[in-house]
Specification:
One of its GO terms (cellular component) is cytosol. By secondary structure, the protein is of the alpha/beta class. The protein is built from 24 helices and 30 strands. Helices cover 30% and strands 17% of the residues. The longest helix has 16 residues. The two termini are 37 Å apart.
Length: 778
């Protein structure tokens, strides 16, 4: 019997904890379906901490506050001020996808610790490229990535980390099916970890260094989140889906409106949304910069827990239900109200996930803007929309077309979220419908959503439109083509648009032409929330670590171009940073995709030096509006960003990056922080940061700084040299002064803010958080 603990998992249960007695029948069911069941759920500890904090604060608490404050390291003395103080927390669990797990495990190995202190898992989902179809693509990935998979499998076995093999599915779907439940706190090395909020959990995306903290059993820091309330009224119906809720919210809040906040959904409309639908909404909350999103415990979650073999947890959640919902009269920092009766189907894009349009209007807007109307490819699935219900609703649309003798005019791909979903939709006939309408079922993996797509129907630079049920649509993200106009919407709308072959189609009002020439309208989609029969678990793809892996070895070949053991970064010299060269002044949006591209670069995620060759190659240089073309001020010649950075480092020249608003939005990938540090960067100075990236930079010993006056961005010139003064008196809340020397001899003094606390200042002084952890072990 595999074991899992809800709170303080590495510790013995506290007084008053309840033990779940799992029946023999349930044990057998679990063994067959390769779950790792929860054997202990310590809601008493959660309640105790919440009671302590509530007495101190003397006010009603939001659900987010209950779960977050319920995991405080010191509930009696922790200073709590939403948006200001840093909380020290003990999350219950860690999950890592294979692209980020490589660096996370390399850092954990460097820590010298013998075993993880909390239950942790690795999920192989990012390294499988979509090319011809599921089985062949999976076989090819296993062959190409064998070295990496062996490393992750052996590292997991040695250090006590569970390993979900390639083909098992996307990390967030596996978490929802197995590990998330109401009241749990989980961190994951992927920005869409908040998916688990659909099951009443606080699930937060982080970088690998944060995961190392939690796996080491030391308190994890998080700035006390603000709480944005989204009140839902009315009922979802017709073509409107859960995806439309978050598409609407993204249009309201924009890509940075949720930064530093948890988005908490509440109100009578919640009960009209399935558990997996709530997960969809929470998943894409990453696109508004939110720390995470969460829904209150209700009967939809109870049903999902029962259907996924966790009825005992549902019973316990029922008993502690008042702990798993917000208090009456709790206050939110901001409230948004959405009437689901009035909400219409939406489609967001292109190039940014917050550019929201009603489906009824996007065709006209596309004509006005000159966007290609023809839909080249429709893609459904991904971690955002690959549930049984999603597949059922999309299949119901496809079946209507088939019944009228039609197939998709666009190419059509389907990405199941997990092996369990793949096996179940195959058993229940959905996969056959997708195939018959012209679709290809891809591997249970991220695939095109993260750029793992060997697309061949258009040439690079060819203007075209794709529609997806994914979460993110940054320039060139899906297919490495900057001319691809990508739109995100629900799976059922994707299916309808793929059948129609054009953006200028509103399934609520427009007609299609059947093969016999008759005009017909698609009726609104339907689909079972959960399968009538039990889920089919499919193949067993989980490897549990041995009870003692200390004798096992993890081999990293020194000649490998995929894996590289880490060397510690240098400590702070004790002096101010003087005359740092501006490497690049970035213009406009700069996501982690711009800083450290995915797609073909994913193969190097375990080799810091090799992957550093993609640093900032997608960022736009303000000097010439070009990408990956900057001036080397030592030679006077133009070159690629990584090449110039390496030249500066080889010649002892420290450098700084200057950026715009919401710098580092998007993925949690800490490579976007590791690479600048590795190539000699010292500071990143911008108008504002996305939360995860700012933390990742701090963890690696860099200085993420913001202009006190955002208009000072305009004073920086591409050939400037910048000194940052005041490092000897580096203290929380105290700004730095930057001395900016221009090539014409003039000088500007600018004030730069930072958000470092005392602990984070120690990271900087030690050279990185990992260096500081090692110092504390001695």
């Amino acid at each position: 019997m595999l074991m899992f603990f809800c709170y303080g998992l590495q510790l013995a249960l506290g007084h008053g904890a309840r033990r779940l007695h799992v029946s023999a029948a349930y044990r057998a069911k679990v063994a067959m379906s390769r779950f790792e069941p929860t054997s202990f759920v310590n809601y008493e500890k959660l309640r105790s901490n919440v009671d302590i904090v509530q007495k101190r604060l003397n006010r009603p608490l939001t659900l987010s506050e209950k779960i977050v404050y319920g995991h405080l390291n010191d509930p009696h003395n922790q200073e709590i001020d939403r948006g200001r103080t840093y909380l020290r927390l003990h999350p219950d669990r860690v999950a890592m996808q294979d692209a980020t797990a490589q660096m996370a495990m390399l850092q954990f190995i460097s820590s010298g610790l013998p075993k993880v202190a909390v239950p942790s898992t690795i999920h192989c989902d990012h390294l499988i490229e979509a090319q011809t179809g599921g089985p062949k693509d999976l076989a090819r990935a296993k062959e190409i990535n064998q070295e990496v998979y062996n490393f992750l499998s052996s590292a997991g076995a040695k250090y006590g980390v569970g390993f979900w093999k390639p083909g098992s599915g996307i990390i967030h779907q596996i978490i929802l099916e197995n590990y998330a439940y109401p009241g749990v706190m989980l961190i994951g090395t992927d920005s869409h970890t908040p998916n688990g909020g659909g099951l009443g959990a606080i699930c937060i995306g982080v970088g690998g260094a944060d995961a190392v903290d939690v796996m080491a059993g030391i308190p994890w820091e998080l700035k006390c989140p603000k709480v944005i309330g989204v009140k839902l009224t009315g009922t979802l119906s017709g073509w409107t889906s859960p995806k439309d809720v978050i598409l609407k919210v993204a249009g309201i809040l924009t890509v940075k409106g949720g930064t530093g906040a948890i988005v908490e959904y509440h109100g009578p409309g919640v009960d009209s949304i399935s558990c997996t639908g709530m997960a969809t909404i929470c998943n894409m909350g990453a696109e508004i910069g939110a720390t995470t999103s969460v829904f209150p415990y209700n009967h939809r979650m109870r049903t999902y827990l029962h259907k996924t073999g966790r009825g005992e947890i549902a019973a316990l959640a029922d008993e502690y239900a008042n702990l798993l919902v917000p208090d009456e009269g709790c206050e939110y920092d901001q409230v948004i109200e959405i009437n689901l009766d009035e909400l219409k189907p939406h489609i967001n894009g292109p190039f940014t996930p917050d550019y929201a349009h009603p489906v009824s209007q996007v065709g006209a807007t596309a004509e006005e803007k000159g966007w290609p109307l023809e839909v080249k490819v429709g893609l459904i699935g991904s971690c955002t929309n690959s549930s049984y219900e999603d597949m059922g609703r999309a299949a119901s649309v496809a079946k209507q077309a088939l019944d009228k003798g039609l197939k998709c005019k666009a190419q059509f791909t389907v990405t199941p979220g997990s092996e369990q979903i793949r096996a179940t939709i195959e058993r229940d006939g959905y996969s056959k419908i997708f195939g018959d309408v012209g679709g290809i079922v891809l591997a249970n993996a991220c695939g095109p959503c993260i750029g793992q797509w060997d697309r061949r129907d258009v040439k690079k630079g060819e203007k075209n439109t794709i529609v997806t049920s994914f979460n993110r649509n940054f320039t060139a993200r899906n297919d490495a083509n900057p001319a691809t106009h990508a739109f995100v919407t629900s799976p059922e709308i994707v299916t309808a648009l793929a059948i129609a072959g054009t953006l200028n189609f509103n399934p609520e009002t427009d007609y299609l032409t059947a093969s016999n020439g008759e005009k017909f309208k698609l009726v609104p989609p339907t689909g079972d929330e959960l399968p009538t029969k039990d889920f089919d678990p499919g193949q067993d793809t989980y490897q549990h670590p041995p009870s003692d892996g200390s004798s096992l070895k993890v081999d990293v070949n020194s000649q490998s171009n995929r894996l590289q053991l880490l060397e510690p970064f240098d400590k702070w010299s004790g002096n101010d940073l003087v005359d740092m060269q501006v490497l690049i002044k970035v213009k406009g949006k700069c996501t982690t995709d711009h800083i450290s591209a995915a797609g073909p670069w994913l193969k190097f995620r375990g080799h810091l030096d090799n992957i550093s060759n993609n640093m900032l190659i997608g960022a736009v240089n303000s000097e010439n509006d070009a990408v990956n073309s900057i001036k080397n001020h030592l030679t006077g010649e133009y070159g690629g960003v990584p090449d110039v950075a390496r030249h500066y480092k080889a010649n002892g020249v420290s450098w700084v990056v200057v950026g715009d608003d919401n710098y580092g939005e998007g993925s949690s990938r800490e490579h976007a922080a590791l690479e600048p540090r590795h190539l000699g960067g010292r500071a990143i100075i911008v108008k504002s940061f996305a939360r995860i990236h700012e933390t990742n930079l701090k963890k690696q010993g860099l200085l993420p700084l913001t202009f006190s006056n955002p208009s000072d961005y305009d004073k920086i010139r591409p050939d400037d040299k910048i000194s940052i003064t005041g490092l000897q008196t580096f203290t929380p809340g105290k700004p730095f002064i930057a001395i900016v020397k221009h090539s014409d001899g003039s000088v500007d003094e600018l004030e730069l803010n930072h958000s470092f606390n005392e602990t984070q200042i120690e990271w900087f002084q030690a050279g990185s958080a990992l260096n500081r952890m090692k110092e504390l072990q001695h």
